[in-house]
Design goal:
mainly beta, 11 strands
Length: 112
Amino acid sequence: QVQLVESGGGLVQPGGSLRLSCAASGFTFSKNAMSWLRQAPGKGLEWVSDIGSGSSFTYYADSVKGRFTISRDNAKNTVYLQMNSLKPEDTAVYYCHTTVYWGQGTQVTVSS
């Protein structure tokens, strides 16, 4: 069965960095575009970033452009989200997503 397992979340101070990982299994990872989305407390789901199957494209929400970098390693079936210059408004549960599949999410809290 398809599994997406996120990791790397945690508590970080404003201005800090985190690197999220999403390990995929149960499908041909190298053929799928992948996405990161997030949901802040009391808010709806927000798209963060996409990456093409062969890293042919990357897209970012304006709110994270220049601070976040999405990447993937098809040999490891893993997609990453490097988050730098974190702000309190980046606090959310971050989800990995492809087609109809979702991970369980990883909590990111940015606070002093």
